[in-house]
Amino acid sequence: MEREPTVPQRRAVPPATVARLPGYLRALEALAAGGSVLTSSDALAAQAGVSPAQLRKDLSFLGSYGRRGVGYDVAHLREQVAVALGLSSERRVVLVGVGNLGHALAGYAGFAARGFALVALVDADPGVVGTVVAGLPVHPVADLGRVVATSGATIAVLATPAAVAQEVCDTLVDAGVVGVLNFAPCALRVPSHVDVRAVDLASELQILAFHDRRRSADGA
Is 182 annotated as ligand-binding? Predict the structure, then answer.
């Protein structure tokens, strides 16, 4: 079967579309694992949890329009989405904060499965420094800049207490990190060339509690 050509990306991809791309990639991977070679926009949208119109609009930013009566080539579209997400080459990640959450994140198999290599662990606790977690030695926080430079990490996962998160983030940025996944319950200040994604578990639970309370009030 003839593949559709890869069209050069000419338009900036909106942030909302970027936020949905991982869902499309996950859906395509599930379809591929199930043996699907082709998929329709309706089937792929249902798998990703969006409307077919939204899916088609989002994929148009990647230059992918499918073929009328045929649909999308699953393998080719998966490659397009992965390239758009910057996953055509391995991304090296450093994890700072190897407490309970950090320990669990270090053992997360999804990093490698999705094109990320966890290359270094860093912590401030003398009782943790020098131990081996998920096959990696834990370095002291005083060596953070050197660890980033020698490991080639460009992305950091921050699982430190909020009180030290900004200081650690500043060191990471100075060492060349350009992306931070922040689990610390605080807002980080970074230069314009650095991206921060915040994962605040407590806030998400509070939002769920709000909706639960509202449903209970409506049903009263």
Answer: no
Nearest CA to 161 out of 196, 124, 204 is that of 124
What is the fold of 91-203?
Answer: Rossmann fold (3.40.50)
- Is 100 labelled a binding residue? yes
Report, as ranges of residue numbers, the positions in the chain whose pLDDT lies below 70.
1-11, 220
pLDDT tens, 67-90? Answer: 777 789 999 999 899 888 888 778
* Whether 199 contacts 181, CB under 8 Å: yes
Distance (Å, rounded) from C-alpha 33 to C-alpha 14? 29
Q: What is the helix (H) or strand (E) element at residue 138, kind and residue range?
A: strand 136-140
Residue 23 labeled ligand binder: no
What three-state secondary structure class fits 38?
strand
> Known binder of ligand: residue 98?
yes
pTM: 0.75
Q: Is 152 annotated as a binding residue?
A: no
What was the pLDDT predicted at 220?
Answer: 58
What is the model's pLDDT at position 23?
93
Estimate to the nearest angstrom the gap between the alpha carbon of 64 and the chain centroid: 22
What is the structure's pLDDT at 213? 85
Q: Are strands 195-198 and 179-182 parallel, antiparallel or unpaired?
A: parallel
141 is in an annotated binding site: no
Asked if residue 166 lies in contact with residue 186, where contact means CB atoms within 8 angstroms, the answer is yes
- Measuring CA to CA, how many Å separate 178 from each of 122, 169, 199? 17, 10, 17
Q: For the chain, what are the domain ranges?
A: 15-83, 91-203
- 15-83: CATH topology is Arc Repressor Mutant, subunit A (1.10.10)
Question: What element of type H or E holds 27?
Answer: helix 15-33
